[in-house]
Every structure is written in C-alpha cells, then in structure tokens.
Amino acid sequence: MAGRQDAPTAVAVVGPDGVVSGWSEGARLLLGWTAQDTVGRPVTDLLADPPPPGFAEGYGAGPDPTGIIHLRHRDGSTLDAVVAAHPLFGTDGRALGHVVTAQRWGRRPVIADRAFEQSPFALGVYDPDLRFLWINASSARVIAHTEDQVLGRKYREVLPEFDRTLFPERDDKPYTDALAQVARTGEPMRLITVFQPRGSNYANAWATSIWPVRDAEGRVRAIANWGFDMSAEYWARQRLLLLNKASAGIGRTLDVIGTAQELAEIPVPGFADLVTVDLFDEVLRGEEPPSVSASGPGGTIVLSRAARHSANEDTDPAPGPTTPVGHTPGSAAARCMATGRSTAELAAEPGEGGEWAFGPGLAADPAHWPPDNPVINESIAAEGLTGRITVPLRARGALLGVVAFSRLDRPEAFTADDLILAEELTAKAAVAIDNARRYARERTTALTLQRSLLPQGLPKQEAVEVASRYLPAGTGAEVSGDWFDVIPLSGARVALVVGDVVGHGLHASASMGRLRTAVRTLADVDLPPDELLTHLDDLVLHIASDLQATGDFQPTGESGSTCLYTVYDPVSRRLTLASAGHPLPLITSPDGTRAPVPAHPGPPLGIGGLPFEATELELPEGSLLTLYTDGLLESRERDVDEGIAELHRVVNRSTTSLEALCDTVIDAMLPERRTDDAALLLARTRALDPRHVAGWDIEPDTAQVPRVRKFAVDQVDAWGLEEAAFVTELVVSELVTNAIRYGEPPIKLRLIRDTSLICEVSDASNTSPHLRRARAFDEGGRGLLLVAQLTQGWGTRHTTNGKTIWCAQPLPEAGPH
Fold first, then answer.
1. Cα-based angle 643, 647, 650 (whole degrees, multiple of 5)
2. For residue 503, which phi and psi values (nearest 5 degrees)?
3. What is the Cα 686 distance to its own chain's centre?
4. Which residue from 305, 255, 281 is spatially nearest to 440, judged by alpha carbons?
5. Which of 159, 282, 433, 511 is the most buried (most CB within 10 A)?
6. Which neighbouring-strand residues pair with 209?
7. Given strand 624-628, what is the order of strands in its sheet?
C-alpha cells in the first residue's frame, strides 16, 4: 500500500447508463482492477460506500465537479480519492457519457492544491513579467479581486498602490519593485510591507517572502510570494521603538522649553501628525504650578504654548514660543486637567454592527478602551483632524499642563493601545519637564544669590580704570562660584581680586559669598597679598573642619577653591600679586606687547601648610591687566596655552573703551553653549601725578612737630585746599607726635591728593595704636579719638619695614591748582 502514494491518475469512461465502457492503465495501478474486471459493470460497483446523492446522475459532478469518494480496491481495502467527472458529447450534441478521473487523496499534487488554496496566508504565482498565474482565496481577499479577474494581467495594472511606499520617510521599497528584483536576479527576498488593502482606510503590515520558481534546467519560470498579516506585532514594535526613542530623546537638557519641544517632535510623523504642549506660565518660570481653578474670564484656563510640531512645518509653521492659549470650559483639554484623565476623540462614528472601524491587526475591541473613551466628536473634523488624544501633563502629583496628539492626513483611527502610548510618552516628558522646572528654580535662586554677593557697582577710585563681566554657565549647567572684586585701599591703592569656588549650585554661591566677605575683611586690615592668602587658607581649613557632613546636610565646598589677589599702587606704579592656585593675570603693555609675570601660582585654598609667594612688578602707566577665571578659556577646540594666546590677541585690539573690550573678549572667547561660569575683570593702570604727592623725613624730636605742621599746611594751601588746612594741621600734629614718642626712626610724613586728602605717617615700629577711652583727668589718650572724629577714616598698614598710620578726609571744593 505504501507504493500507492505515487500512483497515477485513474481514468474511466462511463456511459449514460452508468456502465463502465473504458478503463485506463492508471486506473489499474491505482485500484488494482483490470479492464476485464470493470468494463461492462456499473461504476457504482467501485464504491466502498453507498453512492452520495446525485452521484449516479453526475458521477460525482453535482454542483461541485470534484469530490472525495471512498473507492474499493481489488484487495478489499478502501481508498480515498478525489473524483472529477467531465461530460462527453457527440457531433450532434448528444451526451455520450462522462470521463471520470480519480486521484488518491493525500497524493502530493492533490493535497498541496487544497492546502495552498485553503491557506490563511496570501499566496500568489506570477510569470517573469509579473502577470498573474494563480492566487489563493486569502490573496484574493487581500487584493479585493477574484482569481478570474486578475489571471493574465500585470501586477502593476491590478495593484498600482503597491507601486509606491506608504511611508517614504522609512525608505521602504515598493512591493512591485521587490517582485521585479527577484524576477531579475533570481535571488529570494524577505521583507515587511506596510500598505493599505483595497477598500480599507487603515495601514496593515505584512511579512512577505518572494522566491523564484525554477524548472528542471534551473531557469526562472515564475515568481511566487506569500504573506501574512502581522499588523498587531508590527505596530506594537513600532510603539516600543518610539518609546525607546523617547527615552533617549526626551530630557536631554534641563530646559523646560527644550524638553517640551522634544516631546512635540519625537511622535511626529510616526505616531501623530501634530503635537502641541501647553504649560502653565509658572512652570516656564520655574515656579510651583497653580491649581486648575486658576483660570481667566469665563472659566477659561490660560496656558502658554511651550512647543508645537507638525508633519507639515513648511506649510504649517509653528507660532512663536510661549504663545498664550486659552482652553474653554468643556473642551477636551479643560476636562483632562480637571479630571486628570486622558481623552481620545474620533471624528468618525462606529462602523456597521457597532464595531469600531479600526484596521486589521489593531486593537479593535472596544473593551480595551478605558471608561468614557473614545469620544465621537465630529467637530474636530472641521479642524481637519481625524482623531486627537489629549493627555494631562502631570509629575509628582502636580499638574504642569496638557499635551494633544492629533492626526490630520492619515486615516487610521487612534486605538486603545495608542492612548496608552500617548500617556507613556507624556509621563516620561512630565518628569523631565518637572526636573527642568526645579532646576530652573534652583538655578534662578543660585543666580540671584550669586549676583547679590557680587559687586553691584565698581567703587570709585582713581588708581585704575576698570570694567567687568560675569556670565553664568548655560542652561544645561549649574551656577558655579566664580567671583571678582575691586577694593579701594589706603594710600590711593586698589586691590583687584578674582576667584573660583569648586562645585556648582547654591552651595558654590554661598561659598563664594563667604570667601568674598573674608577677602574684604582681610583687605581692610591692609595685609600684603601673600599674607592675606595665608589667612584665607587658614579660614577655609577651619570652615572645612567645622562643616562635616552629618545626616542629610551637605557641606559647602570652599576647599580646593582658587583666588588671585593683586594690589596696585598708582604712586609707585607697582603691582604686587599672589595666587592661590588661580591663573595669573595677563599684563599687556601700552605698546601692545605681553609683559611676562615672573610668578607661579601657589596651592589652592584649603590645602594648608604650603606658603604663598608675593611678586612685585613695576608697570608703565596705561598697562592693561586682564584677570579672569578658567571658564573664560575652557573649550574643546583649544588647550589652555592656546586660550591664553587667543585672549592676548583679543585684548590687544586697539579700543578706547574697556566696556567695549569686555564685550569683544566675551564674544570671542566663550562658546555658545557654556558649561562653566566665566568672570572677567579688565583694569587699565593710571599713575598719580607726582605733584599730588608730597613727603618729608622727620627727625625723632618733638621739637620738629611745629615745623612739620607748617610744611603740611603750606602744601595743602598750594593744592588749593585751604578749607582742609585746619583739620590737616591737627591730624599731622597728632600722628607725628605719636610716631616720635612711641615709634622708631626713620619717621616719614606723606600727603597724597587723590579722591580724598590722605595723610600717612610711617615709622619702623611694629606696634599698632589703639583707640581708648580717656578718663576725665588723663593728660593723654585723646589723640586718635580726635583723628577718628575729624577724618573720613583711618587705619594701620604694616609693611616689611614697620607700619604706616593713615587717615583720609574728603576733599573740599578745590581751586585751580
């Protein structure tokens, strides 16, 4: 029986009376009966079971010319066969009987034909010119044509829609081109094709294979293909890809507007044709969002359009940023914000039978939708929309705004899975937007604190002409602790300071304020630069030891900070400087050459135990000092040495305005996206007119005091400051007398006419005078009190050779001297 699997087709001739009149060799091989056994006998004798209705009349033809019949084999077994009856006619049209064919059921051509015909996959065969040779029932349903309608016609003629790509942005190959490529190359191909079937308004995704059909000689005789609808799997994968893209593309910057724009751009065009993101103004400002009840006239909720992106940006340009948008009561956006639930709106009614008109392979079951979704809103069609999903933008329990995903050109309706995807995209963006809002609030606070701690205006002084700039880091970075200061000192001198606190944020700003205050306090003591940095270093060490982290407390970060402290004396034109790990100043001579600074930066503040060295330079009048923080030089395009050379080239440009030069330096040195703060302080040196300085050497004898008083009064009169003569005489008398009595020679007096009238008395003693309260009968102790009351200020300045007591009084209206 095993050999019967490949038995040939049995052929018998049956007369009108149902009697066999002819028997083929194939019939003998298939059933075992010979012609002698069967000719002349009724054909029904070959049946194992009673004949089915109508068999006797049509020998199995009936309404279907073929059928499965149980035939009796000569050895007594039963054989299932597919029987077909073909009528015979004479020349006169008279019926002569039937030619009956029988093939064993299960034989390869028979079962294969039935399997292919009944396959749920779409199957088709075409000649090398892509003319239809055969399609099965599933394929006929997909292309909406019967087999008779397409046989012999070309593929492009029957299915012109397959000659283009549904999504050009995905670089899909037109399906007809793929068929032609296989016919041309003979190489099989597998691909996923997205197309809209005939009679459907929805895109389906099909997994297809195309292969050549060859003859015995290997020549391509036909092209075959098969495909099955994998829309559900395909669109699910597309949603996963979109979520993955959103994870990498949303929240890349700590900027509210930028994050909103990322949310608007990523779903277009793969998921929606238009996305809008509306936020509360408070969110844009970094403040806490208001309650939903915060609405305008008539209950309208007014938001700002933070982002909008359309698939047709060329013909549908976006409005300007933060355009006010009002959402009226009852609108989808207002309902979403009030209830906290998303809303899906469709422009079309349900299809026939109450089933939603979703595409094959999509979530068409209405049970998948959450309550009250979707809403049929025919009014959105007037806006050119086929569907819209509105999602409240919420993060950490706060409502930030609302997002709308709209479809315009594409006919596919949103599904329940699309609603879940829209909510997931919005949730990812909401956290990123809230993070950006919180960062903006902290950054604004840090900037406010930092700017309040920086000089609000440079003090009046005549030693140098100054201009400054401070630029915080870009929005993608936290504020750091860069700072600068200009401090007038005694003797018409000025201190120029610049520093950089490690770290970022509020702690860095607070640390910067602490260090700046400490420098000002130490500068008031008139310490030399190296000693000042030593005291500042000790202070940072003490602060670091006192502020150990406990619990959730985060200590500030003065340790490792840098500072450059310089003092310029316009009388001697000498600059004294010391650095605690900070870049040295750039000094440009009046002729434009770069003056070398023979010094090396010391260790950063907070290291402790290492000395700081002071360097003294004599500068020509009109020299340009450039003090800066490393944020001015940092760049991926150049190293530090290249940055310094570029800075010198920029500051060497001839300009009469330091303010203009500051702007030039900032524009030339800083990249568009800064990652660190940058501080710049420019100072052009001046030299005090020698005629405005007068000095005398004093013998350590109190008898010299009257003569010194006269010298001082005569000099003040010579400067045209007669109104200051009386106070000057008293002050000089007191200071010189104290120096002679309690100091050590040599003793010197110096008068300086600057923005104030300065009197200085120097001696070689290191003891400092102190104010004290004199008793009623004390003969002394009132001198310094008198000096303090008569002058604008006084103090002591220690030098390497002793000390200097100074006082300053405001200048009266001077004469023409």
1. 140
2. 95, 180
3. 49
4. 255
5. 433
6. 190, 226
7. 464-471, 678-685, 624-628, 586-588, 594-595
* DSSP conformation letters of 783-805: HHHHHHHHSSEEEEEEETTEEEE
| Tokens standing for residue 269 | 């065009």
pLDDT at 804 over 70: yes
Integer Cα distance of 511 and 563 in angstroms:
13
Backbone angles phi and psi of 20, in degrees to 5 = -70, 125
Q: Write the CB contacts of 736 (distance below 8 Å, at least 6 apart in sequence).
A: 698, 704, 705, 708, 709, 747, 749, 761
Residue type, 514: R
Nearby residues of 700 by Cβ (< 8 Å), 6 or more positions away: 740, 743, 744, 745, 747
Confidence of residue 628 (pLDDT cuts 50, 70, 90): very high
Q: What share of the chain is helix, strand, coil (3-state, %, to 5)?
A: 35, 30, 40
Query: Which candidate, 509, 565, 568, places its Cα nearest to that of 537?
Result: 565
Residue 5: pLDDT above 60? Answer: no
For residues 512-542, one letter each, b for 16 or more C-beta atoms within 10 angstroms of the residue's C-beta and e for the rest, the string is bbbbbebbeebbeebbbbbbbbbebbebbbe
Pick from 550, 557, 520: nearest CA to 536: 520
Structure tokens at 398: 């706060």
CA 511, distance to chain mean position in Å, is: 30
Are 749 and 732 contacting, i.e. CB atoms less than 8 angstroms apart?
Answer: yes
Tell me the one-letter amino acid at 52.
P
Residue 220, pLDDT > 50, answer yes
Pairing of strands 204-214, 189-195: antiparallel
Distance of CA 7 to the CA centre of its chain: 72
Confidence of residue 359 (pLDDT cuts 50, 70, 90): very low
Q: What is the pTM of this model?
A: 0.58
Query: Is 437:256 a contact under the CB 8 Å cutoff?
Result: yes
Q: Centre a 10 Å sphere on the Cβ of residue 168 and count the other Cβ atoms it contains.
A: 8
- Are 636 and 674 in contact, with CB atoms under 8 Å apart? no
Residue identified by tokens 């700003």 is 509
Pairing of strands 343-346, 375-376: parallel
